[in-house]
Amino acid sequence: MIARKTVKDIDVAGKRVLVRVDFNVPLDKKTGEVADDRRIREALPTIQYLLSHGANVILMSHLGRPDGQVVESLRLDNVAKRLDQLLAEKGTDVKVRKLSDSVGPEVEKEVKSGQYQLILLENLRFHAEEEKNDPKFAAQLASLAEVYINDAFGTAHRAHASTEGVAHLLPAATGFLIERELENLGKLLERPKDGFVVALGGAKVEDKIGVVSNLLGKVEKILIGGGMSYTFLKALGKPIGTSLLDEKHLASCADVLNRAKTAGTQIFLPTDVVVTDNVKKPTKIIPRVKVEDIPADMQGADIGPDTINSFTALIRLAQTAFWNGPMGAFEFSPDFARGTTATAEALAECKGFTVVGGGETAQAVEEAGLEDKITFVSTGGGACLEFVAGIELPGIKVIPEK
């Protein structure tokens, strides 16, 4: 794996340093306050290093999907408040200066005034130019600083102005979070195929079909659960009732299943499932139905007990195990959470090298209190998946080599 420059490879003393962090955190629906501060905590080592080495730090992040519009509930004020609290807990008395925009004359004036050592720009995605990787928007961001640090692994698979565009305009390096991600996920790529088990879940086939395809021949076993499994089952001619179905990717699923046979990778699909009349508002739940017998008017909501037993047995015995995506609709009912919880527990019991992808998967592991028993929990969902599949990430590729 190519080593990238890190924050330690750049002289930051007395310089304005623009840092892309991932503060896309869940907010409490009633109070608007940060409901889970994990992503903020993960960014602290880089922020504290820069502050302690005399840098003037300018943080930038997105929050939610405002689609280029100013959405009051998605302002970063409560994020700034929580960052202040966490820094104080760590003994750092520098206060966050939160600005009302991310670019413009007023922003530039405050940033270059020298009055503040730690500034947080407003939600980047209030500007449509951010996700378009608009050169002018990237130049406006770059004009605020003398050095660029990317520490937002969760967005490294997106070529946005703040993740890719800016890196062409300033001396660039990674922060400690990305350095840790690359080190641990890089180890996955170096592991032998034999004994390598990958468990994939989640709702959308389109998010993972390319990953499954790229993993063929590189891992020994792929276990597929969650909503995405029903399109694979349908590709095998199984009845799936009203379960999630991605007709656009039926042929791709069939192709992957065929190629797996010659690639030397075994793909395991659910043999039984939990079904319900309505995943979001269930009034009827059947805890075990064979996949051949899914009723026409019901939908799959979780992997069943037989599948849980077979999947978890394979994970426990793995020399290397990687998991990304819940095995069921765990967010809607405890009755649909058993597959996800059991997968987390099996990974914690595995004696091999274990990695959990970010997003909902990391959330499930944390809620189960098992984070300390996993070798590494990534902060990136899509970025983690693409990296493990050998896909080059734009936000990493642009960082100079050491």
Please render the helix and strand layout as text.
Elements: E1 16-20, H1 38-52, E2 56-60, H2 77-89, E3 97-98, H3 105-111, E4 118-120, H4 135-142, E5 147-150, H5 161-165, E6 172-174, H6 176-190, E7 196-200, H7 205-215, E8 221-224, H8 229-235, H9 250-263, E9 266-268, E10 272-276, E11 285-290, E12 299-303, H10 305-316, E13 320-324, H11 338-349, E14 353-356, H12 360-367, E15 376-377, H13 382-388, H14 394-397
Parallel strand pairs: 1-2, 1-5, 2-4, 3-4, 5-6, 7-8, 7-13, 8-9, 13-14, 14-15
Antiparallel strand pairs: 10-11, 10-12
Helix pairs in contact: 1-2, 7-13, 8-9, 10-11
Structural notes for this entry:
The chain is α/β, with parallel strands linked by helices and 402 residues long. It has 2 domains: 7-180, 3-Layer(aba) Sandwich (Rossmann fold), CATH 3.40.50; 191-388, Rossmann fold (3-Layer(aba) Sandwich), CATH 3.40.50.1260. 34% of the residues lie in helices and 15% in strands. The chain contains 14 helices and 15 strands. The strands form 3 sheets. The protein has a 6-stranded parallel β-sheet with strand order 3-4-2-1-5-6. Helix 5 links the parallel strand 5 and strand 6. Helix 1 (38-52) packs across helix 2 (77-89) and helix 7 runs parallel beside helix 13 (382-388). The protein is globular. The N and C termini lie close together (12 Å). The model has no long low-confidence stretch (mean pLDDT 95).
What descriptive keywords fit this protein?
402 residues; alpha/beta; Rossmann fold; 2 domains; six-stranded parallel beta sheet; 34% helix
